[in-house]
């Protein structure tokens, strides 16, 4: 049963990503569905005897971690808002540095970070992540953040204030180091003049600092 729940949660993320590729406007909806499936699997794991699945890190020795990541910005390769005259040409490389704190509030782990693209766009943000542990090492982490976006020579996002939602899948080693991949959607939720949004895929390494 534990394997079944893990498969359901992972499948929701994969299906969401595929749907997003077909219709980028639906990406936030599918991220929400995938996150809900992951959380449901964690809650079911905690309230039954199906196996070692739980939400949050509980009594785990949670470290202060520095996370670095690199990947592709505009992974779905859309050109931006069709009504905007400043449509971009496609994707770019993206790099990220994130500090994840060694505490939780209502099982949510806070973080702050900054990321930048090879088109000189940058995003400074803060938010929280919810670790759902499947056994001792595999972790799925829905997360959300809010921050300030500066487009540089990259995509005009329509607002300085931008929101980021996504999911990270990671493997945690015995020394608390994590390696994984994350898929995120960034948009302004319609508060700007335009809201093209963008999706990014990164591969991450989290290094414990204490």
From TrEMBL:
<feature type="signal peptide">
    <location>
        <begin position="1"/>
        <end position="24"/>
    </location>
</feature>
<dbReference type="Pfam" id="PF09411">
    <property type="entry name" value="PagL"/>
</dbReference>
<keyword id="KW-0732">Signal</keyword>
<dbReference type="InterPro" id="IPR018550">
    <property type="entry name" value="Lipid-A_deacylase-rel"/>
</dbReference>
<protein>
    <recommendedName>
        <fullName>Acyloxyacyl hydrolase</fullName>
    </recommendedName>
</protein>
